[in-house]
Write a structure and sequence with these properties.
Helix 1 runs parallel beside helix 9, helix 2 crosses helix 8 and helix 10 runs parallel beside helix 12. It contains twelve helices and eleven strands. The chain has a seven-stranded mixed sheet with strand order 1-7-6-5-4-2-3, with helices on both faces. A four-stranded antiparallel sheet has the order 8-9-11-10. Strand 8 and strand 9 form a beta hairpin. By secondary structure, the protein is α/β, with parallel strands linked by helices. Helix content is about 40%, strand content about 15%. It has two domains: about 220 residues, Type I PLP-dependent aspartate aminotransferase-like (Major domain) (Aspartate Aminotransferase, domain 2, 3-Layer(aba) Sandwich), CATH 3.40.640.10; about 90 residues, Aspartate Aminotransferase, domain 1 (Alpha-Beta Complex). Bound molecules: pyridoxal-5'-phosphate. Pyridoxal-5'-phosphate (PLP) binds next to helix 2.
Length: about 325
């Protein structure tokens, strides 16, 4: 990063950003990609690309765009969301019946569907590929744009052995994060057709996401996507180890068996997740209270096997006192 060649990315001539965007677009099987500061901005650009004020989009009820972006689609783009309750973040094609509003001036125009893979609130679950494809085919037939929130797409790739371009193929736009499991300090991207990415750059500028000599950050992102995505299976194995420790604790239960690097468990005692996390923190293990009864743990490249084993011991020590 310190040695990165830089230019001015608002003018489009930062060579490190150009290299990152080309590498990313190629990996996702899309014509072009645009580097942005965050996954939230990538998603909000997608909303604005595909929807007009007075439109709605379909999404799973626990997804990030709906829950954790301050309703940015409404605040920034005058768009509404229609949610569908999934099972661990997964929705089925049957649940989509009658979800597209008819052409009627009383109603919002249904313009887009978004899916999230892996699904954060769902517990890092991988969406089944056939289901993703069937949903996207249905959406296309119904005139809806298709956006994939792939903040953790490379975890889905590592867990399934299915290439990122295959996961992305049924979508118009895909966003990915170089941060999170890939380990870059900052950065995300949105990918799609050249024409869409030209418009995405305009929206990025509007949202204040045009960054100047940003090659120093892009270089870290390029390293992360080239080198670190190949080791995500280690994080998944560590998540499974945490899950087996949780399984040994009668006071805790896994919400779903981990499929990637996220482990969510419920506390079956009158003990708040915040208090549980405080006790874990005394062992140097940092979990996130996740709703009224649950805790989320995430494995990543800075936590190795022996640290995971230590985390397992810490979980068991805290749980036995409940
Ligand atoms: C599924 C998903 N999408 C998007 C985001 C947003 O990413 P960022 O924190 O870079 O805005 C997150 C962040 O946790 C996420 O989990």
């Amino acid at each position: 990063m310190a040695a990165a060649e830089v230019g001015d990315d608002v003018l489009g001539d930062d060579p490190s950003v150009v290299a990152l965007q080309e590498y990313t677009a190629d990996l996702l099987g899309k014509e072009a990609a645009v580097f942005v500061p965050s996954g939230s901005m990538a998603n909000q650009i997608a909303v604005r690309l595909h929807c007009q004020p007075g439109d709605e989009f379909l999404c799973e009820a626990g997804c990030h765009i709906y829950n954790y972006e301050q309703g940015g689609y409404a605040q920034l783009s005058g768009v509404a969301a229609k949610t569908i309750e999934g099972t661990h973040g997964r929705i089925s094609i049957e649940q989509l019946a009658h979800k597209v509003n008819p052409d009627n001036e009383h109603l919002l125009r249904t313009a887009m569907i978004t899916l999230e893979n892996t699904h954060n609130r769902g517990g890092g679950t991988v969406q089944p590929l056939e289901c993703v494809k069937a949903i996207c085919t249905w959406a296309k037939e119904n005139g809806l744009a298709r956006h994939l929130d792939g903040a953790r797409l490379f975890n889905a790739v590592a867990a399934s052995g299915i290439e990122a371009s295959e996961w992305s193929s049924a979508f118009d736009t895909v966003c990915i994060c170089y941060s999170k499991g890939l380990g870059a300090p900052v950065g995300s991207a949105i990918a799609g057709t050249r024409e869409m990415m030209k418009r995405a750059r305009r929206i990025r500028k509007l949202l204040g996401g045009g960054m100047r000599q940003v090659g120093i950050i892009a270089a870290g992102a390029l390293y992360a996507i080239k080198e670190n995505r190949l080791r995500l299976t280690e994080d998944h194995a560590n998540a499974s180890l945490l899950a087996s420790a949780i399984d040994r604790c009668s006071q805790l239960s896994l919400v779903v068996a981990p499929e990637s690097n996220i482990v969510i468990f419920e506390i079956n005692a009158e003990f708040s997740p915040a208090a549980f996390c405080e006790q874990l923190a005394e062992f140097g293990v940092y979990g996130l209270p996740f709703g009224p009864k649950c805790v989320r743990l995430v494995t990543h490249r800075d936590v190795d096997r022996s640290q995971t084993e230590a985390a397992c011991e810490a979980i068991e020590r805290v749980a036995e006192k409940l």
